[in-house]
Amino acid sequence: MARLLDALRRANALSVAMSQAAAERIGINTTDLHCLNLLTNGPLTASELARRAGITTASVTGVIDRLETVGYVRRERDSVDRRKVVVTLQVQQAAQDVAPVFSPFVRAWRGAMEGYTDEQLELIAGFLDKTEEVFQTEVGRMRAG
């Protein structure tokens, strides 16, 4: 258990370093990159993007402004509630500029997983799903108190 927890800690630290290097390469900051990543699952309201990113609604306005300026997102008024702003990833522009930065990483990751059976990959995916749940719960707990 100690070895696994240590490996998770190290992987998390390297993930942060990778995000910083990638953001520098793309020409944006790490918070902007984090928000782009959150938008890959579909459009979000500005307030939901702020909540998921762990930033204030005032800060998310700056993020959206910067990302819109470089063509990575589009903002529109919500068709049901015009007070809300919906932010949508501009997939083509992101694929052109952002995806190439991560392509070598994805290829290396795929290569590292080649020796595992389908059952082992399912086990690893299940573990990562549980890890995500723990992160979500603990981040929420930290923010609440």
From TrEMBL:
Residues 1-133 form the HTH marR-type domain. It holds the Pfam family MarR. SMART domains: HTH_MARR. InterPro entries: ArsR-like_HTH, HTH_MarR-typ, MarR/SlyA-like, WH-like_DNA-bd_sf, WH_DNA-bd_sf. PANTHER family: TRANSCRIPTIONAL REGULATOR, MARR FAMILY (PTHR33164), TRANSCRIPTIONAL REGULATORY PROTEIN (PTHR33164:SF106). This is HTH marR-type domain-containing protein. It comes from Microbispora corallina.
